[in-house]
């Protein structure tokens, strides 16, 4: 081999070595140069700007922890985008699992609440009906005194509305309550 061939080979070797030697960026420089590309890629993958921001944060956290490894072959941008794709995939998987669990919980809750609500509403309507029956059996003016007191009227207002003596309103209400409790206990079974 001639000296010229040797020089050419050495020159080619040094050019190849120069191509392999890449500029090592600091973390701040890498962040500044690649942040927008990683964010756009993450947004395209997940279609959610807030989740994309979380992905970018995780990608650059991993870059900070592995800066030398990420720049080893001079393919920093490719490394960042690969990490972004993996993080996005993991986040979407986690979100899908979380959504499935939430939907399952919500469906079960609705089922339980609906069943409970229907039962409670039936009990409530039954009790209202019983109370109306009992009130219908209480004699006047005790019934009207009870109803007006329940509406929040004062003794004076009840007396004026029913055209009765104000001094009798208290005793009519007390007797009406006793009668209601007695009759309500008979209709609905033993109640306090």
Detailed description of the structure:
Helix 5 packs across helix 8 and helix 6 packs across helix 8. Among the domains are: 83 residues, Orthogonal Bundle (Rna Polymerase Sigma Factor, Chain: A), CATH 1.10.1740.10; 51 residues. Helices cover 84% and strands 0% of the residues. The N terminus is likely disordered. It is mainly alpha-helical and 192 residues long. It has eight helices and no strands. The N and C termini lie far apart (115 Å).
Number of strand elements: 0
Q: Give the count of helical stretches.
A: 8
Residue-averaged pLDDT, rounded?
Answer: 81
Q: What percent of residues are in strands?
A: under 5%
Structural class: mainly alpha
Question: In the CATH hierarchy, what is the superfamily of the domain at 22-104?
Answer: RNA polymerase sigma factor, region 2, helix turn helix motif
CATH class descriptor of the domain at 22-104: Mainly Alpha
CATH topology of the domain at 22-104: Rna Polymerase Sigma Factor, Chain: A
The biggest beta sheet reads: none
Order of helices and strands: HHHHHHHH
Distance between the termini: 115 Å
Rounded to an integer in angstroms, the radius of gyration calculated over CA atoms is 41 Å
Shape: rod-shaped
The parts where pLDDT drops under 50 for at least 5 residues are: 1-8, 13-21
Percent of residues in helices = over 70%
CATH architecture of the domain at 22-104: Orthogonal Bundle
